[in-house]
Amino acid sequence: MNIYDRDGTYWFRFMHNGRRFRKSTGIKVAAQTRKQRNQHQTDAEEIAAAYRTKMAKGEVGIEEPKRIPTLTQAMKDFLEWSEQEYATHPNTHRRYEISSAALLRYFGTKTLDRITSDDVERFKTWRAKQKKLPQGKKSKKARKSAKMLRPATVNRELACLKHVFTRNCELVARNPVKGVKFLEEDNEQTRVLTLEEEKLYLMAATQPLQDVATVMLETGMRPEEVYRIRRENVYLDQGYLFNPYGKTKAARRKIPLSEPALAVLARRMEKARGDYLFPGRAPAGEGKPKAERTDSDKPIVKLNAAHTATVTRCKVAPFRLYDLRHTWATRSAQAGVDLVTLAAMLGHSRIQMVLRYAHPTEEHQFAAMEKRLRYMAG
Predict the structure, then answer these.
(1) Inter-CA distances, 230 with 94, 142, 211, 226, Å
(2) Do 207 and 269 fall into the same domain?
(3) Which of 149, 167, 185 represents a domain boundary (last residue)?
(4) Does residue 50 sit in the same domain as residue 78?
(5) CB proximity list for 88: less than 8 A, separation 6 or greater
(6) Do 206 and 304 sit in the same domain of this protein?
(7) Which residue from 233, 351, 353, 374 has the fewest beta carbons nearer than 10 Å?
(8) CA dihedral 112, 114, 116, 120 (to 10 degrees)
């Protein structure tokens, strides 16, 4: 009989009448002291021995093994579960849906037990060499100018595959993604706009991108937080809005509004026909011009295409829409906002997450030294 660790739980396996059998003991491996760890292992061994004795007496038998699904089947079940599990966080489910596409192209008809760590490594190498085409463009010119996939994209796909195997751990002995090293990501890379770049970008932006960008630059909100602003969460007379969304308590916060942000939201509230100030696009064929087709019951999903077109028109160096949040945060840090306050305003749960914005210029460093000298002289 063999006791082994599988995803933090003791399992046992042995041969019975020429057939291999394995089962979880339910005993967790993790323990505070060596004595506790030894006790946990002893408990697991006793459970395994008792089960084998029952099997020898015919009190329990070996269940017929379940059919191993293909990745296509397993992914379908996983996405159905994900849609229910993340009903309050639809972007998480959407991320899994997007990540599943490449995985299905590569592994689709393979059963889970035939996917090895070597296969996953080959998938990682294959994806890392691919390019991302602009949405809806497949011409030779578009292919030539397309950028390589970011490591973060490949890593999200690997994470999705790992979750699929975790959901099927009773059927497959080992998760093949577990031994695969994810690609290095440059998460610290940010782009901060100059005031001139901000002016050119906003002048070139069309609606609703112009208003979304203005709110981000004035509040530091995430794009999806702006998209989902609802009428009942805006308190113009008190100068703030409440963001009820987010995975952490810190993300669900009151957000102070500047005069430009107040002006945008006041205008939006006056014109809004539903609860969302930034309504999504309604389906085609409703007898209205494209610019007027809105769905007041749903928020905007994304503005990537409008942002890319705006950057091209205004001829500033490329940046992501999310970098408008980085711009607000960096300017706030340089203006003297302390990092604890900055973390709260950005909706971060840990102060370490805002340290990337604390990179003052030489001018700020000399000013800080003068401030210290005045304090000491006083």
Answers:
(1) 21, 38, 15, 9
(2) yes
(3) 167
(4) no
(5) none
(6) yes
(7) 374
(8) -60
Q: Which two tokens stand for residue 252?
A: 């669900």
- Collapsed DSSP state (helix, strand, coil) of residue 189: coil
Closest CA to 165 of 154, 179, 153: 179
Instruction: Quote the domain boundaries for residue 39.
Output: 2-56
* Domain contains 370: no
Same domain, 37 and 107: no
Q: Is residue 33 part of a domain?
A: yes
Q: Are 72 and 164 in contact (CB under 8 A)?
A: no
Domain boundary residue among 275, 301, 320? 320
Residues 6+ apart with CB under 8 A from 36: none
Same domain? 201 vs 311: yes
Q: What is the distance between the alpha carbons of residues 376 and 378, in angstroms, rounded to a whole number? A: 5
For 136, the 3-state DSSP assignment is coil
Q: Which residues of the chain have pLDDT under 70?
A: 1, 16-20, 31-32, 58-66, 133-146, 186-189, 282-296, 358-365
CA 155 to chain centre: 11
Q: Is 318 exposed, middle or buried (0-12, 13-18, 19+ CB in 10 A)?
A: exposed
Nearest to 264 by CA among 253, 251, 278: 278
Bond prior to 208 in cis (omega within 30° of 0): yes
Check: pTM over 0.70? Answer yes or no: no
Strand, helix or coil for residue 162: helix
- Please give the tally of structural domains in the chain: 3
C-alpha dist (Å) from residue 336 to 340, 355, 370: 12, 14, 14
Do 293 and 285 touch, CB atoms closer than 8 A? no
Same structural domain for residues 51 and 99?
no
173-186 confidence digits (pLDDT tens):
789 998 899 988 76
Two tokens, residue 119: 């296969």
179 within a domain of the structure (yes/no)? no
Q: Token pair for residue 49?
A: 């021995």
Contact (Cβ atoms closer than 8 angstroms) between residue 162 and residue 102: no
